[in-house]
Design a protein that fits this description.
elongated; alpha+beta; 102 residues
């Protein structure tokens, strides 16, 4: 157990919400959770912010004329992603994160 506590103490702050997600939400044992940390992407923000970032980074609206961009509903995309299990909202130490990739 002492080795696990050392590993947890040495984690980069980025991995803390990911570890919490794997332990609390997924119910993984600590040894499995530590080995799956690299499988997750943790976004610092809400699912809606994640969807907006995703649309921007992927260039999903680049092929559309600028005047049509306002008709794209990132909130609906976020809702669909949550309902499909593609992303998960997580509140950890008072901050909201969006987790994907597991």
């Amino acid at each position: 157990i002492g080795e696990w506590f050392e590993l947890v103490d040495e984690l980069e702050p980025y991995y803390e919400p990911a570890l919490f997600y794997l332990l609390d939400v997924c119910g993984e044992p600590l040894s499995d959770a530590l080995s799956h940390l690299e499988d997750l992407f943790v976004f610092d923000g809400s699912p809606e912010q994640y969807a907006e970032n995703y649309v921007d980074e992927a260039g999903l609206l680049d092929a559309l004329p600028e005047q049509l961009h306002g008709y794209f509903d990132c909130n609906a995309l976020a809702d669909d992603m949550v309902l499909n299990g593609d992303i998960h909202e997580l509140v950890y130490q008072g901050s909201t994160y969006t987790v994907s990739g597991y």
